[in-house]
Automatic annotation (TrEMBL):
One of its GO terms (molecular function) is monoatomic cation transmembrane transporter activity. Residues 14-207 form the Cation efflux protein transmembrane domain. It comes from Photobacterium sanctipauli. GO terms for biological process: iron ion transport; zinc ion transport. SUPFAM superfamilies: Cation efflux protein cytoplasmic domain-like, Cation efflux protein transmembrane domain-like. Belongs to the cation diffusion facilitator (CDF) transporter (TC 2.A.4) family. FieF subfamily. It is found in: Membrane. This is Cation transporter. NCBIfam families: CDF. Keywords: Ion transport, Iron, Iron transport, Membrane, Transmembrane, Transmembrane helix, Transport, Zinc, Zinc transport.
């Protein structure tokens, strides 16, 4: 029996948390011993992951809950809020690291970091890249955007260790490059801020009711064309709530069809959509007759100013021709 979404999220998050604690302690300790400010900054970045892990552990209990009377559309926005929290925290950590690095650049030069800092950075890159790949697999299993965001948090940690390793090697080879370690810390800052933006922006779009980020309209039109009972679909609207998508559109059928037949067609089409598009969890379909007054994709009159009567006659002719 497969694990529930909340169990998958908690398992992946706990594994990441344990790794983050171990890596943070190692990097900060080695950074202090070897005099690598960039490695210390990288360790602080790893510690910040613990806060986001906690947010996911708490938030997942809410956003995985089913819809209820108080939240008829589900609790997906709790996941959105969690993503915003992760993004804001990442941005603050990045700004803090960058500010400290800028202040250190003007200070008196210190001796280059020792090679132990290089091996600590390389260990971090390896562990965090493995965590990233494993967490992405878990996120895809349950289609969790927050878990995917946390996976990218792991990837940003791996990438942020890369300039640290390069700076240590460069400083070891050319000791006169006194401030290369601080420059590496600024590169870490840039990577952290980029990761923060990539997490924050989709969440902001979601809160502002932007259209979902997948080509839902194209897929719906494709499915409709394959169904001979459906004459047209239009006014397709989609919005994201957490990792799920809510969808509504107008569906046109033969005006001579009974209400019961039209309802059956719409229910079958809804089931097909839910089966084909995993992220879609609810579909509202407005059934309309395939008449000139309702047609949008294939209007009866192509020329402006045509009379309604003429449209109706043309619609009848077209219908008779189809029959």
């Amino acid at each position: 029996m497969s694990d529930t979404p909340v169990k998958v999220i908690q398992k992946a998050t706990w594994v990441g948390s344990i790794a983050n604690v171990a890596l943070a302690i190692v990097k900060i300790t080695v950074g202090k011993l070897t005099g690598s400010q960039a490695l210390v900054a990288d360790g602080v970045h790893s510690f910040s992951d613990l806060v986001t892990d906690t947010a996911i552990l708490i938030g997942s209990r809410y956003w995985t809950a089913p819809a209820d009377k108080g939240h008829p559309y589900g609790h997906g926005r709790f996941e959105t809020l969690t993503n915003i929290f992760i993004g804001v925290l990442l941005a603050l950590v990045g700004i803090g690291i960058g500010w400290d690095s800028v202040k250190q650049i003007g200070n008196e030069a210190t001796s280059p970091p020792g090679m132990l800092a290089f091996w600590a950075a390389m260990a971090s890159i390896l562990v965090k890249e493995i965590l990233y790949r494993w967490t992405v697999v878990q996120a895809k299993k349950i289609n969790s955007r927050s878990l995917h965001a946390n996976a990218w948090h792991h990837r940003s940690d791996a990438l942020s260790s890369l300039p640290v390793a390069i700076a240590v090697i460069a400083n070891f080879i050319v000791p006169d490059l006194h401030y290369l370690d601080q420059v590496a810390a600024l590169l870490v800052t840039a990577m952290i801020l980029k990761a923060a933006f990539e997490i924050l922006w989709p969440a902001i779009l979601e809160l502002t009711e932007a259209e979902s980020d997948i080509d839902v309209e194209g897929k719906i039109q494709q499915y409709a064309e394959a169904d001979t009972n459906i004459k047209e679909v239009h006014a397709i609207r989609s919005r994201r709530t957490g990792s799920t998508i809510l969808l509504d559109f107008h569906l046109l059928v033969d005006p001579e069809m009974s209400v019961d037949e039209a309802h059956t067609i719409s229910e079958n089409f809804k089931s097909h959509i839910l089966q084909e598009i995993d992220e879609v969890v609810d579909v509202i379909i407005h059934i309309e007759p395939y008449t000139c007054a309702e047609r949008v994709v294939n209007p009866c009159c192509e020329e402006k100013g045509c009379e309604e009567k003429g449209c109706e006659e043309k619609g009848i002719e077209e219908k008779d021709g189809e029959d």
